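so the lab meeting is tmrw and i was supposed to have these ready like two days ago... anyway. pasting both below. for each one the top line is the aa sequence and the line under it is the structure tokens. i havent really looked at them closely yet so no promises
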Amino acid sequence: MDSFDLSPLFRSTIGFDRLMRLADTATRVDAGSAYPPYNIESTGENAYRLTMAVAGFSPDELEITVKENALLISGRSKKEDEKKAYLHRGIARRAFEQRFQLADHIKVVGASLDNGLLHVDLAREIPEAMKPRKIEIASGGGPRTIDQKAA
């Protein structure tokens, strides 16, 4: 079975279309997603690091874009000197485009290129309005009523 039919879920859910698209995308096999190789690691409770092997690429040949909860990393090598005669060419400098879906409130906080490895640091930044808060309980007097005035 190559894919799941999620259409019955659309009949009884509202607002989960992004989740459905994500599940649909995750079930597809993309042959081009293996290049360049990468690691995703957790560096803290709310911190992550994406490390991508981009040997031979300079910072001006790489582009990192975040749009609508999607992280897009692409590399385009500039035209090489055609006078070089390679006896063996094992370092692939082909163009690539990697797309990662980001969870809500995940922000890219920085990127660096070190020894052929591109490091992209991400952090979960929960808005103040969504953080748990303690509600004080008033003592005495019983429940308060709210007066409504006729319009």
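ok protien two:
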Amino acid sequence: MRNEVSAWRTDGFPVDAERILRVQGYRDPARIRPRIRKIAERAAADIAAVANPDARFVRCTIESVSNGVLTLAGGHQFTCAAFDRLLANVTDVVVFVMTLGPEMDAATAQRFEASEPVDALFLECAGWLCVERATRMLAAHVQEEMASEGLGVTFRLGPGYDYKSGEDRAVWGLEDQPALFRVFGDAPLPVDLLESCAMLPKLSRSGLFGVAPRS
């Protein structure tokens, strides 16, 4: 598995309509209008048909972590002041990119074009909930692959997120996205990186899982 790009996919699945409503700020079920609830239920069901989680991942050995700079085998480097703390006991990382696919972006755009902005908003919310679940599923898959080595996944880190660093918080900047994509070499990926460091399709995620011996 080390240094080899692997693929992982799963079929689409529905999400919980109640979670969509909570994320959108509807905290009191008794005060949710029937129309809004129906839109959430429709988005929760529709996501299974339009989202197709698809990921690529590669396991890399950590060469060093020093002064906020993570260096992987092959010379790939990333910078975040929190790395020294977060990666203190980590031996390897699994770098990944994941997307729900272009059909998801198209479905959201169609709802906006049909003047159904609430439908579009709720479907996109369902998409991000799907990304969260698919990420956990990918982590479980990676952990299963490494179980025979006595290794396990510890946590996920990603460009654009901030992490505790001493008494402050440190951001892993999006400007590291090109370096993360270079880890995959010439392997075809289901995600394109734009000059802005945003990704297409829109509902995509990049990052790494820490890998350490299981206690």
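from a quick look at the 2nd one: Residues 117-146 form the longest helix (30 residues). The chain has a mean pLDDT of 94. will dig more after coffe
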